[in-house]
Amino acid sequence: MPSLTERLTEITSDAFAECGYDRRYGAVNVSDRPDLGQFQCNGALAAAKAHKANPRQIAQQVADLLTANDALGEVSIAGPGFINLSLASAFLTNWVQAAATDDRLGVDRISAPQKVVIDYGGPNVAKPMHVGHLRAAIIGESVKRIARFLGHDVVGDVHLGDWGLQMGMLISEMAHRQPDLPYFNPEFTGPYPEKSPVTIGDLEEMYPTASARAQEDPSVMDAARAATFALQQGRPGYRALWQHFHDVSIVEMKADYATLNVEFDLWLGESDTQDRIARLIDRLRHGGFAYKSEGALVMDVAEPGDKKEIPPLMLLKSDGAVLYGTTDLATIDQRVRDLNAELVVYVVDRRQGDHFRQVFRAAHRSGIAPESVRLEHAGFGTMNGTDGRPFKTRAGGVMKLKDLMQLVTDKATERMAEAEVAKDYDDDERAAIARMVGMATLKYADLMNHRSRDYVFDLDRFSSFEGRTGPYLLYTAVRAKSILRKAAARGLGSGSLLPPASDMERSVMLKIVDLSDVVYRAWDGRAPNHLCEFGYSLATTFNRFYHEHHILSERDTARRASWLALSACCVRVLELTLDLLGIEVPERM
Ligand code: ARG
């Protein structure tokens, strides 16, 4: 089925056409003044301008036709010629009934599905994940789920940072600490030990030490650069050691992502482009795109209309090592050729905007990505603490993702105890619920603002079971499910929907019919915040409805059955909304 606003646009466009105006004036949107009508059309103003006529008169002509339409209830005109529309109860009821009996809740699959790659996560091997990686994971996961639900063929790729200077730093730090390991002996012919010489704990200690030493001492930095280059050239001992760093890190990352309920289809990284880089560079050279500049190999990406200077993209350093942009370009090549990507969405910190502008231009200009392939940076802002500065530990350091997840889970446990939630369950179940409540806290707080904005993570506020929070939405969904279970246990079935008998009931229905538009809006803007807003508004509406109507004790059986059906539909819509946000809902709490 089309979305409701699409259907209303059709009806209104017909009316404009019948009055002798262009159909395009018939666009209908959800009203920003719901007190005047649930939907509105502003086309009469533009039509009047084009026809040098009186807008109210046109609006009146159109409104007269609309009033006669069965789908519509009250039609009124406001101000200079806005048309306000309300739905006829029978039409609304049928619409909700159709959604309620549809396994997609009335949300159509997208008409032209594409092969979509979502690049998100982006953790770096041997460096602990921190709050910056949190946003990429949370937003990317949601955008991926939305795209998939709409019927795109979607692949989520974690795109590990595993090929840069940090790898060389670690290798030379290891060589400094344990020079006798076979990895550093050029004569050694293998096989290299199967067991990793380092644990994740070692790596997390080594990287900052190595990086600090390199900053202080240029010879250490040179050694790290040389090691990076040798690694990229395929020196066997370095590759073997790199593999250990990689594997040890991935175990850790997978555990963190599992806690977050974030899943990737592909665990590729910068290093996976290694075998196509030489060819890519050749191609750019031969095509006349790449040229030498001060020893380095670069490519121009500036365009005549640029407001600020866009410097050339660096492809190879003077020592021959590849850079972040080189691997990103090669990854586009891989995604276009091997994955047949038609759209690639990069969910990465907004501050990397210039980098992606360079890379995307280089890809399109050189033909690595045909013009038809859309490359898009869906940038996000910073998560700040309540002091308005980037979120830090109490000691002022960067907070590890793991510690943050522990923090919110502990807070959830505390809140649950206060509210006596899950009090009688065994410890395992309570812990599982606390994790879900904790992650809901984190995710909802992150997703509720448009991704491009910075936001303040106020743990006290966002962990509350009341207000615009993840825990509130979870609690509402779980409670609504328990009402349905109770009804089923008493043998009370749901039935077909009756036209709404109260304003509250009507409001619930009107929320449900919004779903389709909201999901599409969220996808179009790569903006899960629309779903957050919708979920909250659905939850409060449902809670009010439930509060005003005594569903289980209602004597009128047809009415009760209708309310139960409406509640069940509401639960499904809320669960779908939460699922698209990547928020897990416990069975009970
Ligand atoms: N590893 C990078 C970082 O930590 C993010 C990678 C984003 N994705 C990409 N294709 N560049 O900043």
Outline the fold blueprint.
Layout: H1 4-18, E1 28-30, E2 39-41, H2 43-51, H3 55-67, E3 72-78, E4 82-87, H4 89-100, E5 115-119, H5 131-149, E6 153-157, H6 165-177, H7 200-216, H8 218-233, H9 236-260, H10 274-286, E7 290-293, E8 296-299, E9 313-316, H11 324-337, E10 343-346, H12 353-366, E11 374-377, E12 383-384, H13 401-418, H14 427-447, E13 455-456, H15 459-462, H16 470-489, H17 503-512, H18 515-524, H19 529-548, H20 557-580
Parallel strand pairs: 5-6, 5-10, 10-11, 12-13
Antiparallel strand pairs: 1-2, 2-4, 3-4, 7-8, 8-9
Helix pairs in contact: 1-3, 2-3, 4-17, 6-7, 6-8, 7-8, 8-9, 10-11, 11-12, 13-14, 16-19, 16-20, 17-19, 17-20, 18-19, 19-20
Residues 119, 122, 124, 159, 161, 328, 346, 348 line the site of arginine.
Would you mind describing this structure in some detail?
The structure is a single chain. The protein is an alpha/beta fold and 589 residues long. The chain is 52% helix and 9% strand. It is built from 20 helices and 13 strands. The protein has helices at 4-18, 43-51, 55-67, 89-100, 131-149, 165-177, 200-216, 218-233, 236-260, 274-286, 324-337, 353-366, 401-418, 427-447, 459-462, 470-489, 503-512, 515-524, 529-548, 557-580, and strands at residues 28-30, 39-41, 72-78, 82-87, 115-119, 153-157, 290-293, 296-299, 313-316, 343-346, 374-377, 383-384, 455-456. The strands form four sheets. Strands 1-2-4-3 form a four-stranded antiparallel β-sheet. A four-stranded parallel β-sheet has the order 6-5-10-11, with helices on both faces. Helix 2 crosses helix 3 (55-67) and helix 16 (470-489) packs across helix 19 (529-548). The radius of gyration is 29 Å and the shape is globular. The two termini are 35 Å apart. The mean pLDDT is 95.
